[in-house]
Each structure stands twice: as C-alpha cells, then as structure tokens.
Amino acid sequence: MSDQDKRLGVYFHIPFCASKCAYCDFCSLPGRDKLMPYYQDALLIQLQETMPRMTDYFIDTVYFGGGTPSYYGARRIVEILQELKVTNRLMKQSEITVECNPDSVRRKELRMLRKEGVNRLSIGAQSANDDILRLIGRRHNWRQVEMAVKRARKAGFRNVSLDLIYGLPSQTREDWADTLTKALALKPAHISCYGLRLEEGTPMYDEYEGTDILPSDDDQADMYLYAVDFLSRHGFRQYEISNFAHDGFICRHNMKYWVGDEYLGFGPCAASDFAGRRFTIEPNLEKYIKGVMEKGVILSESEMVPLRERAGEYLMLRLRTVDGIEKGEYTRSFLLPFEPIEEILIRLQAQEYAAFSAGRWHLTPKGFMLSNSILVELLEAQQKSRPLTQKK
C-alpha cells in the first residue's frame, strides 16, 4: 500500500455492563446479558453487510468501547476480529484497543485477546481511593486495578492505558495526587484524566449536583493543572485536553476523531464519519438487533456535512489537541480566511490561553480549561467570514 491509500478506524460499541456507575450517562445496559448472543449475531451481520464499502480503505485502528467490552467476553471479541480480518483490509500494524474494567479482567481472556492481535488495553481505574470508588458505584477497588495491570503485562500487553477521574465527590487535591502517584507506579504507557461532569438523569446528579461534597470549579481546575504538570515531569506528553502518553503511545484511534479522519461505528449509539457522510445508529439495543435482523432502519440520523460545518469541526476538534491548527491547512481545506481566527488567538496568546509554535496555533493548559467559551468566540468569527472565492 502507498501513503495515498485511505485509512479507516473501526469502532464497536459493546453496551453491556455488570452494573451502571452512578455518574454514567453512556449507552450502557446492565441486566441484559441474555441478549448478548443476539447482539453478537447482529454485529457480525452489520459488519458483513458493510464490508463491500471498506474495499477502498485499509483499517489501521480498531476500538472496542462500551459499556464494558471485557464483561462481554474475549471469545466474542475474537470472533468479531476474525470476521473483520476476512476483509483483508486490516493492517498488521493496526492499533486494536479493548476497554476493560478491573473486576472483569481474566488471565485466560487476556491471553486470548493478545493472541488474536489486540495490542492496547484501556483500564477504567478512576481513583485510588476505595471509599470514593464505592461512592461513585464502581465495582472494583485499587488492588484490583493493580492486579489487572499485572495480568495484562503477563499476557504480553505493553500498551496499557489507565482512565482516571478528578472532581469526584469528597475528592481532595491530596486524594488526586495520591491517585496519580499510584497510577504512575503501575507504569502505564498512557493516562487519560477526565473532569467529572454530572449529567441530568444520573443518580449522582440527583444526589450531588449543587452540593458542597463536589469540588468547586476552581478546585477541579487546580486538580487538572496539577495533573498536567505532574505527568509532564514524569515523561508523559499531553497530546489532547484529557490525554497523556509516553512517546509512541498516543491513542491513534481517538486521534482520528480529533483530526477529522474517517471512521465507521457498529452497534447502538455508534457514530460514523465515512465517505463525506456522518451518521449515528439509534441508541436502542432491541431496535438495533431487530433492525439488523429484519433489514430495517437502524440509523437515528444521517447527513452529508457541508464544507462550512467541516470548518467548524476543524476548529472544535483540532483545538482539543496540542498540535492545534495551521493557517495554510485551514484556508486550503475550507477556502475561508484565517485572519479573523488569528486575531482572536493573538489576543488569547497575550493572556496565556493560546500559544504559537512550529507554525501552528494551540491552546495552553489554561486555555483548555476555557475551551468551550474560546470555541464559541472562534466559531462566531468563522460564521461571519466570507469564503475566499467570493472575495472581490
């Protein structure tokens, strides 16, 4: 294959969980295990029906997210990968990630996954404080996180990522510092640090929203900046708002979302951006299974994306990363003037919210914390811009 061959990421959504965490508003469904065999059949059929559309692409990333893919079972994941390999489009050096919860990591299953080509594990650790883990409805303790990483190493995984959350109920900066220290002791290749955002309809929103048990916005900002500094001093490069990695271990699949590359999603809630069209599968497990089996409609939305909207996505997604945006890239891709954007960025640079290096603009850690308001201002300026081809 050549550098001109198109690359594709593939995402499989596994909605099954042993139980639902108190903060979770994702498409995850406890107590539906009886549907697993039917869901597996539907996933495989959707994959088979989609294969002819993949012939112009090479698949270089695969991601099993959830839900809890490790709870779904290695045998089913292996079966999906084997079906994907039938396309002859899966590259040998592909990044293949499986999300795991510490309480559902088994030695035999890890070996099975590694043998089949899975080379990256993302473990939902969240906190090293067992009291906080219980408070937020997690099924594991920190000792199980340590055991999960140990088992992963013995199974041959070098690329292990840990997910952590800051801003949790009753969490102090000392708690957060302890979590980061204990996480580093496990020598992960990658760490994700997410600030807690309570969503309406979750148990934690009803119980804690607006109460003093949650760290304040200022406290959460301090935890974030502490993590950026701490991880940087220990060899982790920040490459996105919430993500840090040793050299060579960024999550290639997630980067596809942030830089606007193409990807295909399978399963309820799964989104795709493919062949100029963006589409999402309806977030209903039973409707998904029925729709696939009976050749019905499974999409909740599907649209061709106008160039102006793509330009907005470029700003929103690229400015999540430390590589940021570049004038020539922007004007060539979207035929819009960069000057209105750059004027704002120059002002933000003076306030230490943005920086310019190696010919590219990016947000600083301080800027990342204000990224929503910054993006609103940038998008407003973009909307007022006239296309370059219409300039007189």
Structural notes for this entry:
- By secondary structure, this protein is an alpha/beta fold.
- It has 16 helices and 16 strands.
- The protein has helices spanning 36-50, 69-72, 74-85, 107-116, 130-135, 142-154, 173-185, 203-208, 217-233, 252-259, 285-293, 307-318, 327-334, 339-350, 365-369, 371-384; strands at 6-14, 16-17, 29-30, 57-66, 90-100, 120-126, 159-166, 190-195, 237-240, 243-245, 263-266, 271-274, 277-281, 299-304, 354-357, 360-363.
- It has a nine-stranded mixed beta sheet with strand order 9-10-8-7-6-5-4-1-11, sandwiched between helices. Strands 12-13-14 form a three-stranded antiparallel beta sheet, with no helix packed on it. A two-stranded parallel ribbon has the order 2-3.
- Helix 1 packs parallel to helix 3 (74-85).
